[in-house]
Amino acid sequence: MMNVPYLHYPKDERSLKKAYLIAILLLWVFGFYKNGILLYQNDYISFLDLFIPIYFLGVSAGVSLLVAFLLKQNLFLYLIYGLILGASISINTNMILYPILLFVALFITSYIDQKRSIPVVSLTRLFLVLAILVQTYSYLNVSEKIGAFNYDYFDLFLGYGVGGIASSSLLFVILAFFILLFNPFYKRMIPVMASFSFILGSALLFLITRDSSYITTLLNGTVYFSFVFVATLFYNTPITKKGMISYGLCIGLVSALLSAFLPIYEVGFLSIFLFSLFPSIFDQILQKKHLHS
Amino acid sequence: MQKFIELKKDENILVSSMLESSLQPDAIYLPVQNGKIFIHQNDCVKIGEEVLEGVLSPISGTVKSLKRMHSLAGDGYYLEIANDFEERYLKEVGKRRKIKKEDILKVFNLDGMKNFVLNAIDDEIYVSTQNFYLYLYYDAFLELLDEIEQIFPDLNVYVCVKASSSENVSKLMSDLGMYPNIILKIVPDYYLLGRKQFLLSYLGLDVEKSFVLSAGEFYDIYNYLKRGRTKSDLLLTISGDACKNPMVIQVKIGTLLKDVVKEKIEILDGDICYFANGIMSGQEISLDSFVVTTDLQSLLIMKKKKEPKARKCIRCGLCSELCPFHLHPYLFGNPKYQHEKERCINCGLCSYICPVYIHFYKESEK
Asked: What's the gap in Å between the CA of A197 and the closest CA on chain B?
């Protein structure tokens, strides 16, 4: 087997990173429209406030690149980490505390990750809740706070519902998924199975509780955003196909169960964090027979 | 289910459709390999004479001495026979004779077989050896296949060629009308179809009830049945991006590969390296003292490239997904899972697909 330098599949890890970057920037475009342009057009915010989503985009990218530089990590990968983290936080996040908290959380998790592999993004994301909690814990933007909308299910699907800065649109998350789907290295089974079990779990909860919020949350992009972007990230997922399927099913189901107790915006990240701590368990349990044959 | 893929190759490397030959080496070298030596120094030998246990001389000449050489058969002592260029055969050969049913029954063990498959597919990229056997000895192949079909009327006789082998495909398409019981199977340019078990799996044929021969093996049998000749030469593809004139060459077994390259091949300037039997599943060799043996099918001459630095595994799982036996190459380095590595056929697909350029086999040997 001598093929490594002489014969290789035309795509490599960089193509996957590029696909992630394009997909996440697509969501940021919608985030800028929803939380910036649209609010400004309707006179809910000032001209300067129009650029708040851009501020979070820039800070997320800048801080993550700084951490990557300091810890001698891959800059491109950390840029993606930063953009994913920024896209999922609330527009009400404290603008001064956010860069500090992002730097500290990302630095510490990345440092630990160098010693012992841990899910950097989902863990950092859990820390970032603190920056939202400093203000009033809310994902509502100005127009949503005053209830100046009357969205139907289709509008929620388009992304006009409540959610992270650039993660509220289920439509755009689906488009991002299709961009990533064309890359062979993307772990497509994870978001597919996670979404399937999340929908199933939420439908079951709805049947038990008759609470229509479980159906409404099904159209919220934030959970699917975590499935498509965070659950599939590079180093903390099962490696076998069966492992990926079961990992996805567990994440989706636990996200649905957690949504009964916790805000929907956090459940995806929390369940991903829990299951990403020991990804190889999924491989070992399912492949035990084969590996020891 | 087995997943087959087409390897992305350099379309500029095209093997010439003309056969070259290098059949008059000054001397040949045969691996001794702990077997009995039946001759002595300065003995005269003829073509087809058993000189070592199970090894027939491919040339006529004088036995010289033992020399240290290497080949795909390994490093060790090789018996040198100096060529007298007289091409004297042990038995009277050359006269074409009719192939007898008894001979065919003796050579082919087709009891209980339902399918006879002639495999003219080359697995490795830039290699055209099996394809050339069919192209060159096309009429002979059809003649023998027809005989086999007549002797075993219940046998399904298949000829498998790659769709990219345009000359063979067009010839077979036009001629197989005269042989209605020979079935032509044109397969895509997928890697691994040159190997028996994967070809049968692709064709949906029962492994236990199928007899598969490569075009090279089939030609040797034809030669033996028709002319009584034993194998003394073989076809060898020499190509690669550092080779100005990629071609298929007929060479005597035991020839020094360096002499063949020197005589026939123009090589680009710069750092180059040589691969025996392809870059996917073959091995890098040094041309010095390298001897052509029966298991050598190709020599690829490539511009030396720096090996990309392997990065941390992103756990995409494609190495395992593409592995023909669904092994877990990422576990090869773990002594606990040595049985995984033992089952590896070294096809190279895991390293080919790996997005972070992990050289699994090499990594596991660290």
From this structure: 22
